[in-house]
Amino acid sequence: GEEFLGANVTIPHKERVVSLIDRHTDEAQATGAVNTITKEGKKLVGHNTDVPGFKDALDRLVGRQKMPRHAVVLGAGGGARAVVHGLIREGFQRVVVFNRHLHRGESLVKHFSRSAAHMDLRAMPWHESIIESELAKTKVLINATSIGLVDDVSPVPAEILPPDLLVLDLIYAQTRLLRDAKAAGASVSDGEVMLLNQGASAFTLWTGQA
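^ thats the sequence. predicted structure below, dont judge the formating
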């Protein structure tokens, strides 16, 4: 409609909407996910402001220490795609994606096969023992699933969280995962920074104002 400047797209529609849009920005193209739509005349343009939003969140989580090189990502939807894209761009060397439906994790990995050719990006089956052994080898854990959004549950059991982990939950609340991780001695961050930054970017795209 004429009266709309654009729209935000949220979980679980960020991938589905891609094919309905006339033009995509580089970020939307690279991730295969769209979270912000603007208009150019009659044409719809798809953006992905989760990408810069995630970079800000990651920088804040890591703080002054050296950027880690290994990460575990839970989830394979639109949010996970922005995360994996960001980790590749940041120079991570090993990223393991766990998704409850393995084929979705595998299709995410396939989507990034060219840009991730120089690194170890793989999908693994969602088994507690496999997640545990990967967490023992990694520095960063990112939850990009909706587990913990409505119920007070965590995607991973508290006892498999190592103490020196950096944990980012894209859900903007102190989720069970973050509380468990904190209790284990990990550094934690929720999705507020990412939410705020992607929203601010979207506002600027629609209105031309900072």
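Residues 192-207 form the longest helix (16 residues).
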